[in-house]
Amino acid sequence: MRRTIFDDVHEDFRESVRGFLVREALPHTEEWEEAGLVPRSFWRRAAEQGLVGFAVPEELGGAGLDDFRFNVVLDEEVALTGVVGDNFNLTNDIVAPYLLDLTNDSQRRRWLPGLASGEQVWAIAMSEPGAGSDLRGIKTSAVWRGDHYAVTGSKTFITNGIQADKVIVAAQASGGEVEGMALLVLDADAEGYQRGRKLRKVGRRAQDTAELFFNEVPVPPEDVIGEVGKGLHYLMRNLAQERLSMAVIAVAAAERAFDLTLDYVRNRYAFGSPIGSFQANRFTLADIRTELDVARAYIDRCIEAHVQGELTPAEAASAKLWTTELQFSVMDRCVQLHGGYGYMEEYEISRMWRDARVTRIYGGTSEIMKEIVGRSLGL
Q1: What gap in Å lies between CA 207 and CA 159, rounded to an integer?
Q2: Which CATH number fits domain 123-227: 1.20.1260.10, 2.60.40.10, 2.40.110.10, 3.30.360.10?
């Protein structure tokens, strides 16, 4: 089905993105999976190509492309080309909005050029050992000491945690004139800041994920994002875009899995015929194709709503819930259609299957998404 949400400039951007990823990322798939992270040198090359922090104003080193459809194009192409260790989504869709929308002029001048150039790697730390989807359960503290905040606590499942130079940390502030949740920028070189182990995950092995520990880490007031006490509001506001971007990636990844599988069943023979010609397999593929077309139309409408400033948190939760559940269902059926080869590491579908499992957990579990949607119904 022809899509109508993009203009020619977006399609030109897509062509540039795909060329860069095929040239600079795909040849390193096994190397990055083995290393458990993507090297900073790639990140700097991506920034030179204009793929990092492109919403940053031109005078601060970005391209001034403040249009979420550019984010969509990049997210889709990463999934459709099969690139591993994607940090574009984290930087452009999740971290950048905090630095663009909630900072003052001084903070923007200090932080945005380094992000846009790829010289500084950023992360955001919300999840804790005892607080995952429940942001109100965050225990990390930020105590006012007269001229700075002292941050103490721990975070887990932090993407870019090993390589990050700066981390946006959600913490409970106390001791000052205003108390409540706050967002603070911590420097990874600060006293009391400690990186924990690089976590070994079932999937997404090329994506650097770590534990972080803070022991009285000093944070000056000028490194507080927005207003103290409004941290939870800021997180909830930005989660809508975060969840929509996850939905965009989920559909694109499922489409890649479908295309790989369609090619496989056309060329794999059993009993003298391509296995795709068997009625049961044709019906499975027909179901998948239809489900993907419906999901694509649904997500494109959500993208339009977000660009127009109309997407609600409940709608974003619905999008994330539906598409990530669909993504894993598609991956599972595609593995089945590959037979024994689908369980072999040398086949991309096996990696895609294990990488997809976490999408129903991170960014808020499917169960939490149902809670958000259910509450929006007045229940």
Answers
A1: 7
A2: 2.40.110.10
Q: Count the residues in the chain.
A: 379
CATH fold for the domain made of 8-120? Butyryl-Coa Dehydrogenase, subunit A; domain 1 (1.10.540)
Q: Mind telling me the catalytic residues? A: 242
pLDDT in tens, 250-293: 999 999 999 999 999 999 999 999 999 999 999 999 999 999 99
Stated pTM of the model: 0.95
**What DSSP state is assigned to residue 68?**
H
Q: Within 13 Å and on the Cβ side, how many CA atoms surround 143?
A: 9
CA–CA dist 132, 129 (Å, integer):
7
Residue 291 DSSP SS3: helix
pLDDT digits (tens, 9 = 90+) for 298-313: 999 999 999 999 999 9
Q: Taking 80 as the threshold, does the pLDDT of residue 132 lie above it?
A: no
**Whether the Cβ atoms of residue 47 and residue 110 lie closer than 8 Å to each other:** no
